[in-house]
Structure formats: structure tokens, C-alpha cells
Write the C-alpha cells for this entry.
Amino acid sequence: MTSTREAGADVVLDVVFEDGLLYLELVNLGQQPALDVSCQFDQPLIGVGGGEIGRQALFRHLPFLMAGRRIRTLLDTSAAYFASNQPTRFAATVTYHERDQTPRRTTVEHDLEIYRDLVYVQQ
């Protein structure tokens, strides 16, 4: 039997390592859309080009995130990120509403150290 919560929206911030690149990805793992999505980082993350990731419109206010949808942005190359003395541990809190306006909040703690020693092939 499926609960109402499992059938709703379920939005998280994930970190994706792919071919030596680090991405941040907002993901709606749920079965319903999420409304008024925003993401707060517990500390500033500086991405490629020197911009603060948390200031991107994607994280400040996303009006609608369809069920199953993933939106990805580049954080940096793994080599550049680790060389820049950036935080490797951070928490991201995603807030959003279900279609019935029920507020939801999910906090995920990330540790980028797990990606530091991964071997990959440069293309």
C-alpha cells in the first residue's frame, strides 16, 4: 500500500560526479509536481567562474518542478574545486509546496571528499 506522502513530491539536492565534473542537481523523486521550490546552502559554495551557486535563480525560486524532473548545473571540475579550498561538507535544505499547498522541507548533507580520489578518463 502506498502512503499519501510517497505519492507526493519529494525534492532533494543531489551531487553528481561525471567525467571529472561536479554537478548540483535538483531532483523531484516524487510522483507529483513540487511548487515554489528553493534551496538554501548552509555555507557559500563558489562555482566555476567565481559565482556563488546559491545565488542562481534555480536555487532561489523555481515555481514548478515536475515529478521525475532533474535540473542540473555545473559546480566545477573536481580538480579545480578541490584545489580551491572550498568546503567539501555542506548541507542543502530544499523547501517546496505540494499541489495542495502543504509545505515540505528536506535537508541533505553532502561530503564531496568521496569524489576526491575517483579515477576517471579525460576525453
